[in-house]
Amino acid sequence: MSIELPDFDANIREAVRAFWGNRGAARRKQVESGKADQGERSSVTAGKNMDGFLSIVRQLVAANGLPEAQVRVSRKLLTLPGYFRPTKVWDVVVIHEKRLVAALEFKSQVGPSFGNNFNNRAEEAIGTAHDLWVAFREGAFGESPSPFVGWMIMLEDCAKSRSPVKDSCPNFPLFHEFQGASYSERYNLLCKRLVKEQLYTAAALLLSPRSGIETGEYSDLSEMTSVRTFFAGFAARVTVEAARR
Prior knowledge:
Oligomer: single chain
Number of domains: 1
Low-confidence stretches: 36-47
Shape: globular
Largest sheet: 5 strands, mixed
Distance between the termini: 14 Å
Radius of gyration: 18 Å
Helix content: 40-55%
Mean pLDDT: 90
Strand content: 15-25%
């Protein structure tokens, strides 16, 4: 059973261009309205920055045998039950014949501040996945097979995200992999460990400079955490669901 990734590189580049374009549009809209948020926040509060990747999800669901599946992106339809909390709103939920096929999170981080935001993203990713899998174990999603659970972060590719970072940890030493690691390297480690610990089926780091608004330029740091590996795994889960019919 083969998987389909039609026009994959072109579609990712288009999603990258849309990301940077939507950020700029959100900032301009808030400035024009006189209600701009401080700093980079004015670029993210519109909530449309990752819509290009949601389009790729829709395309892959149809191309891999489930054109009738429900790809839910409207906020009021994205709520799934939790175990440690009542509910969690995901970024994309795919449902077929009342079975949960996939739950996906698409996040982004742009400078100039990377420090506190990295820790917040990591804590959120870990807690969200653990909550879902315990809910799955306890029967929250019925008798359906394990869903594809994915987490992707799009990170600005710039000098600050690539530069070594010093940490203060006076009581015990850091794991050596984190010592002097840049924020891009830290995100790469996070994605690898989220998968190795089976918190996510796949986790991806996509790097793109601000010039990506024109070129769609993007890069990966490892095959394990590449955006192609992420979407190939998603497409494979869709084909499995399609084969059940």
